[in-house]
């Protein structure tokens, strides 16, 4: 994967994180519901956070060890 494409993927991941962890989006899930005793908002923030870290890891891992063509 070329360095510019890797950079674009990482920037996209960053801006998706900004969008998903911003107030208007989080306010949609600020409900009184609980899942397994944990508020829905906390679970949502945790899963968004884990998915952003996973996406970053896979982007970096895919490009590691490959030479640009």
Describe the protein.
It is a single chain. It contains three helices and two strands; from the N terminus they run ααββα. With 69 residues, the chain is mainly alpha-helical. It has one domain (3-63). The protein has a two-stranded antiparallel ribbon. Keywords: Membrane, Transmembrane, Transmembrane helix.
Class of secondary structure makeup: mainly alpha
Largest sheet: 2 strands, antiparallel
Query: How many structural domains does the protein architecture include?
Result: 1
Question: In what range is the share of β-strand residues?
Answer: 5-15%
Provide a brief overview of the structure.
The protein contains 3 helices and 2 strands, in the order ααββα.
What's the structural blueprint in terms of helices and strands?
Layout: H1 3-20, H2 23-28, E1 34-35, E2 38-39, H3 40-63
Antiparallel strand pairs: 1-2
Helix pairs in contact: 1-3
List keywords for this structure.
elongated, two-stranded antiparallel ribbon, 3 helices, 69 residues, single chain, 2 strands, mainly alpha
């Amino acid at each position: 994967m070329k360095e510019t494409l890797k950079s674009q993927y990482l920037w996209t991941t960053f801006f998706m994180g900004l969008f998903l962890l911003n107030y208007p989006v989080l306010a949609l899930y600020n409900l009184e519901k609980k899942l397994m005793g944990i508020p829905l908002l906390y679970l949502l923030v945790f899963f968004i956070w884990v998915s952003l870290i996973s996406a970053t890891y896979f982007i970096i891992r895919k490009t590691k060890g490959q030479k640009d063509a």
